[in-house]
Amino acid sequence: MPVKQITREERFGLLHPAHDVHTLGLTTVAQLLESCGIRAVLGQGAIAEAAGNPAHPLFKERLAAWIRDQRLTRLGFSYRLDPDDGARLMGLVAQLLKDRRLVAEEGGPIRAVYFAGLPSACEKVRRQIPLVAAVFRGDETQEETLRLLGVEMGAVPSDVKAGLAYDEQRLAFGRDLIRKGEYLAVKPVDRTGYTEFGTSQDTVIARLQHGRRFHLPPLVRAHVGPYHPDRYEAVRLFLRWTRELAEGGLLDVLSIGASQLTQSHFGLDWTGLPNGGGVPIQTPEEYEEVWKAARPMLVRTYAGTRGLRALAAMYEERIHIAWHALSFWWFCRLDGRGPNTVRENLDEHLATIRDIAARGKPLEANVAHHFAFRGSDDVSALAAVVLAARTAKRLGIRHFILQIMLNTPKATWGLHDLAKARALLRLVRELEDERFTVILQPRGGLDYFSPDLEKAKAQLAAVTALMDDIEPRDPNSPPILHVVSYSEASDLADPAIINESIRITRNALEEYRRLRQQGSVDDLTDHPEIRAREEELLRDLRLLIQLMEHDIPSLYSAMGLYRALAGGYLLVPWLTECRDEFSLATRWTTRIMQGAVRAVDSEGRPLSVSQRLHSSLLTPSRTTIGTE
Q1: What would the DSSP string read from start to end of 348-391?
Q2: Would you state the pLDDT for residue 349?
C-alpha cells in the first residue's frame, strides 16, 4: 500500500500488544503528529491486551470496533520484542484488515498501515506484507518519521519545523563528512610535554592543563569491554585490545567496561553465576595488568554495587584511576543492579566520596540519564545532578566531572538538548571557586545510534557538532569528549571501531568549528528558542531545589537525598523496581512535548514545578518519608 499524503481531518491509531512495554516510540509519534494538528489515538486497555493474539476472534471484533469508534483512517502496529513474532503478528493484523474489508482499497476507512519493530522484523515485513506502507526501525529522525507517515513538511507548524531543522542540518553535516572520508587521516595528538605523562603520577587534571596550555584537542574517553564466554580468554582479549589502543595513540582515557559480576561480586566466588557482557575482571592483579597494558593512557572504571570504599581504594592502588564515577541513587535495588537499598546505597556512596576527596581525585556523577531512562522529566533529571554536585562539594571534592548524556530520550530536539546542557552548566558552575572546578564531558545517547553503520557514523559526527554547540565561543569546551562508538546499536566496538569513532569525532569537531568560523554554520550562543528554554529550566530548577532545601532537613546528606526521591520531588514514572517504596515519584505522567520532556496532568497539559509539588498526588507527609 503506497503512502498517501495525510490530511488534518484524519485520525491515526497506534497499537501494540500489552505485553510489549516498549511504548516510548509510539507516544513520541503520537505527540509529533498532534504537534502537526493530526489526531493520534493510542490503543490501550482491552484492545492492547487482545493485540497479543491477532488470530483470536476477540481481537478481530475489538479491532474493527476500535477503528470504527475512534474513526481511524491510518493504523500503526508496533512490536519490539522477538523479530519473528513481530513479522508474524503484523501479517495477522494485515490479513484481518483485508478480510474485514477495513482498508481503503476494499471500501474501508484505513488509508495506510505502518509497522515499527526491530530491524530484522522490519525487513521481513517489508518483503512479505505489501499492505504495509512504511516500516520504522527506531533510528529515524523526526523529520524522516513525518515524511514516512505522509506528512508534508509544508504542513508542519513553523515552531516544530524550526526544532527539527537544526537536527536535520547536523545530520546532513555528518553525512557529508563521512562521504568525504577525510576523518581517516586524523593522527594521534602528542601529549608528552609534561613530566608525569603516562606514569603512575599522571592525572586527568595535569593532562587537561597541558592540553589547554598548548591548544590541543579535547581529551577523548571511550568505554571498552569485549565479551568471551571463557573468563580468562575475555581478560586476555581485553588486555590485547588495551595494548592495541595504547599503540594507536588516539585514545586518551581508557574506560574499563567491567562486567556485571565484576561490579557486583568482585573477589567472590562466581561459580554458577551468569557473567553477561563486559570484561570479567576478578582480582586486583588483573586490574594492575590493565594499567600496565594501557600505558600511556589514563584509566578509569565504574564503581561497583557493593563494597564501594574498598573498590575505590583498590582502583587507586592498581590502576591509578583517573577519576571515580558514582551513581548515588542507582546501581542498587532501585534498578536491580545491586543488593543495597537506596538508603544504604547513598550512605555508602557518600562515605566513598569522602575518601575520594581525601585523595584529591575528581568525581563524575552518573545520574541524569538514569532518571531519564525511567521517564523522568527534564527538570527532575537535571535537579538530580545539581544535588549530586552540591553534595560532592560539601564532602570535599575539588574537581567535578559533569557528564551530560545528550539525545536522552532520543526524541529530544537538539535545541532543547543545548538548553538543558547550558542550564545545568550554569547552575553547577555557580559552585565554582578556588576549591571547586567543573569539567564538562558530553556524550551521545545510548539508544541514539542506528544499526545501519553508515548512518551511525553520520550520527556520531552530528552529535559531535551538538557537543560543540553547548559553548560555541569557547575553544576549550568541551575539555573531555566521551566518544560512544558508532557500532553501539549493532556490534561490540573493537579497537578498529573505537579508533575510527575517535577519528570521526575529532574530524567533525575541527570541521564544524571551521564552518562556523566562516559563517556556514550558525553561532547558536544567543539562539532565542534555546535561550527561552534555558531560562525556563533555570527558573524551574531553582524553585525545585529551593523547595527541597526548605522541606527536607539536611538535604545534602544520605537521608536528605533519599527523601528527595521518596518524597516525589524527583520523578521516575517508569521505575520498575521498588515502586511501592517510591510511589510518590512514580505516580506521575511525563510526555515529550515539542522536543522536551515535561510532567503533565491527567489531561496531558504540562505542569509547572509549583503545580506539581502542590498537587493532590502528593501527601502532606512526604517529608516524613524515611524518618529514622
Answers
A1: HHHHHHHHHHHHT--EEE--HHHHHTTT--HHHHHHHHHHHHHH
A2: 98
| Tens digit of each residue's pLDDT (9 = 90 or more) over 330-340 | 999 999 889 99
Residue 88 lies in a domain: yes
What is the residue range of 76's domain?
11-156
Tally of structural domains, the chain: 1
To 5 degrees, how large is the angle CA 557–CA 558–CA 560? Answer: 60
- Residue 52, domain member (yes or no): yes
List for the chain the helix, strand, coil content (%; round to 5).
45, 15, 40
Strands, E assignment, 529-585: none
Distance CA 468, CA 472 (A): 6
Instruction: Give the CB-side neighbour count of residue 344, counting CA atoms within 13 A.
Output: 12
- When pLDDT is cut at 50, 70 and 90, the band that residue 357 belongs to is very high
Residue 553 lies in a domain: no
Q: Is 97 contained in some domain?
A: yes
Closest to 469 measured CA to CA, from 489, 430, 433, 442: 442
Please give the DSSP secondary-structure letter assigned to residue 223: E
Q: In one letter, which amino acid is 7?
A: T
What CATH number should be reported for the domain holding residue 147? Answer: 3.40.50.280
Enter the C-alpha cell of residue 408.
536522552
Pairing status of strand 437-443 against strand 399-405: parallel
pTM comes to 0.91
Residues 499 and 242: beta-carbon distance below 8 Å: no
**C-beta separation of 555 from 564 below 8 A:** yes
Determine whether 235 is exposed, middle or buried from the number of CB atoms within 10 Å of its CB (0-12, 13-18, 19+): buried
